[in-house]
Specification:
Layout lengths: L3 E10 L7 E10 L2 E6 L9 E4 L4 E4 L1 E6 L15 H11 L6 H17 L2 E8 L5 H12 L4 E6 L6 H4 L3 H10 L6 E6 L11 H10 L3 E5 L7 H9 L8 E4 L5 H9 L3 E4 L1 H7 L6 H7 L3 E3 L11 H22 L11 H15 L17 E4 L13 H8 L5 E6 L2 E5 L2 E2 L4 H19 L1 H8 L18 H6 L1
Parallel strand pairs: 1-4, 1-5, 6-7, 7-8, 8-9, 9-10, 10-11, 11-12, 12-13
Antiparallel strand pairs: 1-2, 2-3, 5-14, 14-15, 15-16, 16-17
Helix pairs in contact: 2-3, 2-14, 3-5, 7-8, 11-12, 12-13, 14-15
């Protein structure tokens, strides 16, 4: 599966520091790395040649926050609010997930990510009730040929509890061995409790030398007090990833910026679930680095094409609405398509401390690249503004080839090595288990929350004799 691969005649979005765009360019991959970029390259004997004419070659995308274990319930919570999500997973039914259910969801999510050109995914795995669940999660990630970061969490216990358990340390020593394709974070939230019980978990992370990723600025759950406590105790670092950060005050944004942290924006989630308005405008104002994420397939699409276009839409919608309130008109938008493509690639690689290895198409970097090409689609031509094309026009069906660490994992629009029947069977067993343990009635009710009553405003222009008059 490895050796030499050469893409011929591509429009290359390098996403290097100057965002160089190279038309009609070849990219040669040898083993794990990008060996050469240029025009008319000579390929080694036996190299696999891929005609990229009419396509866009770009870095693999990076998702910095995805609850992969929930993917077996794809679409189940389409009509949920964040409150219903918390009740279902945190308080009631999340505890029903067995290790094999974690494994099934992770495998499905991992293949789903690769299919959409997401070559690196953070598994924000807060369903790890035991280390058996954690082993199942790690096994699943190791069974799929992508690049992953296991963010270890457990919503059924406080982080000061599970991080202090000797079996957690044992798991880290057994499973986190420096494998280039499996990174590690600790994933937990800070509630703002003035006693700061999460301090113990931060101390474990510091002792282990691993980053923390945390849901911050989530309406009704995490707030400015949590940021202040982290800062006052010295636990805000450049490696910390703050997820959502949608309801924070300027003081909190200043603290994040001053300590070099970054924010993972999940626009579809923030718009729909209620964490707060997607904060890209505030992050730009405070100079905070941004990456993108999709959050969970229990609600939303599992690709970053949707993340890019909804992020642009939310940012621009807010700008227009604020201008209209002042009786003004926006004539130039601030957030550009080029910027969100950067956030979907380099933004993620920087946030994860992997920017020296992935995130751009440059000689010497790891060969994590994606070819967008679909000769059968009227949407893939003409390509006039390549950044606009990636952000607004392309979709997972246009992902022609995906390479991770020099290995082709999707080619000609089809995943390589994906056993759909096996994955489907495992997921079906998870669904059957959840229905059995919850009961069919509770299962259906969880998927179909009550619809609030709507009152129609009285209309002064309604005439009671309209029907009679029209019949004459």
């Amino acid at each position: 599966m490895m050796g030499a691969v050469i893409f011929r005649n591509a429009l290359v979005l390098t996403m290097d520091d100057t965002h160089t765009v190279l038309p009609g360019t070849d990219v040669l991959i040898v083993d794990e790395r990008i060996a050469e970029i240029g025009v008319g390259l000579t390929a080694p004997e036996g190299a696999q040649e891929i005609d990229a004419t009419g396509g866009i070659l770009m870095p693999g995308m990076v998702d910095t926050h995805r609850h992969m274990w929930q993917t077996a319930m794809r679409g189940y919570g389409a009509d949920w609010t964040l409150t219903q999500y918390f009740v279902w997973y945190y308080l009631e039914s999340g505890k029903h997930f067995r290790p094999e259910d974690i494994h099934a969801g992770n495998v499905l999510a991992a293949w789903e990510a690769l299919d959409a050109g997401v070559t690196t995914t953070v598994d924000w795995s807060h369903g790890l009730q035991t280390t058996q669940h954690a082993d199942a999660a790690a096994d699943a990630l190791g069974a799929v040929p992508g690049r992953f970061v296991l963010a270890y969490g457990n919503i059924q216990q406080g982080p000061w509890e599970w991080s202090a358990a000797p079996e957690f340390r044992d798991f880290v020593s057994r499973r986190i061995t420096g494998n280039d394709l499996l990174g590690f974070q600790m994933a937990f939230d800070v509630t703002g409790d003035p006693t700061f019980p999460e301090k113990a978990a931060f101390e474990v992370a510091r002792d282990l030398g691993v980053p923390v990723t945390t849901h911050a600025g989530v309406w009704g759950a995490t707030n400015d007090d949590g940021i202040r406590l982290m800062h006052e105790h010295g636990f805000m670092t450049p490696q910390t990833v703050y997820v959502h950060a949608a309801t924070l005050a300027p003081d909190s944004y200043h603290r994040i910026a001053a300590t070099g942290g970054s924010v993972s924006v999940s626009t579809e989630s923030e718009q729909s679930a209620g964490q707060g308005y997607p904060p890209t405008w505030a992050l730009r104002e405070h100079g905070i680095p941004v990456s993108l994420s999709m959050d969970t397939s229990v609600w939303w699409s599992g690709d970053l094409f949707s993340a890019m276009r909804t992020t642009l839409g939310a940012d621009r919608s807010r700008m227009h609405m604020q201008a209209h309130e002042r009786n003004e008109t926006v004539t130039h938008v601030h957030l550009r398509a080029e910027q969100v493509v950067d956030w979907a690639t380099r933004g993620g690689s920087r946030a994860l401390g992997l920017d020296d290895r992935i995130g751009s198409v440059q000689t010497g970097k790891k060969a994590d690249v994606v070819l967008l090409k679909n000769d059968a689609s009227p949407v893939m031509f003409p390509i006039l503004n390549p950044y606009g094309h990636v952000a607004f026009q392309a979709q997972r069906g246009d992902v022609h080839t995906v390479v991770v660490n020099g290995r082709i994992v999707k080619q000609d629009g089809r995943l390589v090595g994906f056993d759909a029947a096996k994955v489907r069977g495992d997921v079906e067993r998870t669904v059957e288990h959840l229905i059995a343990v919850m009961g069919p009635e509770a299962w259906e009710k969880g998927m179909n929350p009550d619809v609030p009553e709507t009152k129609v405003t009285d209309n002064p222009y309604t005439y009671t004799d309209w029907d009679a008059g029209s019949a004459q």
